[in-house]
Amino acid sequence: MRVLLLLAAVGLCGAQYNANTQPGRTSIVHLFEWRWADIALECERYLAPYGFGGVQVSPPNENVVVTSPNRPWWERYQPISYKLCSRSGNEDEFRDMVTRCNNVGVRIYVDAVVNHMCGSGAGYGTHSTCGSYFNAGNRDFPAVPYSGWDFNDGKCTTGSGEIESYQDIYQIRNCRLSGLLDLAMEKDYVRSKVAEYLNHLIDIGVAGFRIDAAKHMWPGDIKGFLDKLHNLNTKWFSSGARPFIYQEVIDLGGEPVTGSQYYGNGRVTEFKYGAKLGTVIRRWNGEKMSYLKNWGEGWGFAPSDRALVFVDNHDNQRGHGAGGASILTFWDARLYKMAVGFMLAHPYGFTRVMSSFRWPRNFQNGHDVNDWYGPPSNWDGSTKSVPINPDTTCGDDWVCEHRWRQIRNMVVFRNVVDGEPFSNWWDNNSNQVAFGRGSKGFIVFNNDDWQLNEYLQTGLPAGTYCDVISGDKDNNRCTGIQVNVSGDGKAHFQISNSAEDPFIAIHINAKL
Ligand code: QV4
Ligand code: CA
């Protein structure tokens, strides 16, 4: 009996690191600012067929309506209540999305903004996405309810009441992050209100949470509300399954708050990953792809089973948060596809693919003054639905990186090679590299300024393979490059440095 209890306990803890995706589905996609109705459709028509494990959705709770600037994307990071209504839809639409996505094996992960409420300057009234009254000035949020007692004001020691130094662990947790009213998470009442919100979502059927601004809450206070969370809904999850937790903790080193302090609660977003990979793929600071041989923990990242990894996210693709100029995004499409391809082929971490909207970037003195732009929207401020073009791309300024053939096919690649070891590394001591995943997949990159022309050990069984970067396997023919693996596992690769996509990926499900 004791063994069973122990196993149950481990199961309880272990599962917080487990994404609760269906077996063989190994990535999630952040459908940033998408409407619930569109996500439900995308689960059924695209994400399920291509083996995406789940979707990170934008904050579903009521937020302040910001009109200056006009409906910025970041208004959704200023909660007014935990009612499920936002520009993405209402509670019925949210429920419908979760049900339809779960029914096709695609999970929903909610971006939980629970460290704070709206900005101190948000005023008072009913300018909120559900019409709930609030008064930021006296910390009054009757729709939760929260009152002045539930905020950290008395605890913060800085003059401005805001975080002024990231070298002071007390300010980071007890003061306001850019003026956002900071909740007193040590109070059981506040923990209970947060848990009530998250349990409402769990009971609807979500599989886990991104904990926004986790760095700004004490790890023990986060545990305080996590311990109050229900098990997942047994309509779609096994009994006792725990919500997947990944905490947004920006840790590029050099600060007293580190990601490792949060491992006890769940995974942590590994921001070093995208910052470093961007530098390597851009070949900045003398970085080169041959250095990626020990990618992962060897580069000082979190342990693989504690890391949530990504090339870019909704903040740093527009200069918010962290990562800086090296971050690759859809704006740098050719290099971006290489970075995402490398991430999805490499075994390190749990992978999240970004799916963005386009906005009119306008750099002035190195800063994009339009970094606040909200999603494609109608004249009344409502978010536009996502039109799908005949060529399967998205219209109306939705970028849909997750639908780019090179990225979608690498999501499939990751599923096919899941569990296979990192193997058969080769490099030319510069920016031509290759590696395999056991006997199931192999990938080759040419990021040098000359042709790659090599015979390489792939580890794959003999046969003819379709390159899933330049094309697809369509019935029994390749629409792109074909690769012949001989009996000894070797294959000849030629990649021009001026190729549209200077990398080739093959796996056993793309074998003729
Ligand atoms: C302004 C002034 C304040 C003033 C306040 C008065 O700067 O000094 O006190 O007005 O109200 C927006 C504006 C910001 C404004 C604030 C209101 O940009 O100028 O403050 O609202 O207080 C997003 C955006 C922020 C935005 C915020 C709330 O990035 O620009 O602020 O939403 O709308 C750190 C954290 C990390 C964080 C990252 C951005 O460690 O956790 O900064 N990342 C997460 C989210 C991010 C979000 C938040 C946290 C806040 O990924 O999208 O910030 O929820 O690194
Ligand atoms: Ca805080």
Automatic annotation (TrEMBL):
SMART domains: Aamy, Aamy_C
Leader sequence segment: 1-15
Record domain Alpha-amylase C-terminal: where: 423-511
Domain Glycosyl hydrolase family 13 catalytic: 26-414
CDD domains assigned: AmyAc_bac_euk_AmyA (cd11317)
GO biological process entries: carbohydrate metabolic process
Domain of life (superkingdom): Eukaryota
Catalyzed reaction equations: Endohydrolysis of (1->4)-alpha-D-glucosidic linkages in polysaccharides containing three or more (1->4)-alpha-linked D-glucose units
UniProt cofactor(s): chloride; Ca(2+)
The enzyme's E.C. designation: 3.2.1.1
GO molecular function (one): metal ion binding
Keywords: Calcium, Carbohydrate metabolism, Chloride, Disulfide bond, Glycosidase, Hydrolase, Metal-binding, Signal
Similarity section: Belongs to the glycosyl hydrolase 13 family.
PANTHER family for this protein: ALPHA-AMYLASE
UniProt-recorded name of the protein: Alpha-amylase
Organism, as annotated: Nothoprocta perdicaria (Chilean tinamou)
Gene, per the UniProt record: LOC112951218
